[in-house]
Specification:
157 residues; alpha+beta; 5-stranded antiparallel β-sheet
Amino acid sequence: MASSTTVSNTVDSAAKNVTRLFLYELYSHGQKDLKDEINRIVLHYGCPLLQNPLYNIIREIVTNSMKAIYKKIFYDTVIKNLGMGEVDYKDWLHLFKVEIETHKANNLVIQAKKRKWGIEVLFERGEKILLVDVINPDIRRKLNKSGFRNLLILQRI
């Protein structure tokens, strides 16, 4: 599978280092890119003990955000298009899990890329604070501009 991550680094006028990851998956390239960025962050702050907890927290939030996208795609492309709209949610969820486990979400990743539905992870490194935003831009746009955001702030002590 080709790279599923877009990475951009910028420095804003307030001298905060900002990195953006745009992810479609966490099974290969996305996971590596997320780990690499977290490694840079813990080195920046000199807190290597936070590497695993920080990665696990952010990965969990990103995974849940991706599952929301994948479920929407699965419903639109499989359940709805095959006339299975009357399927019980429990059965529907079972079919979804089989798709994820069998194909490691490859089919859903392809559809997410076609629709340009991915997860943006924004890291802002200040002198004493780290701001991590996990944003589902496409779902947010559909629901309203305030959207769903998971915010994690770690303050260096």
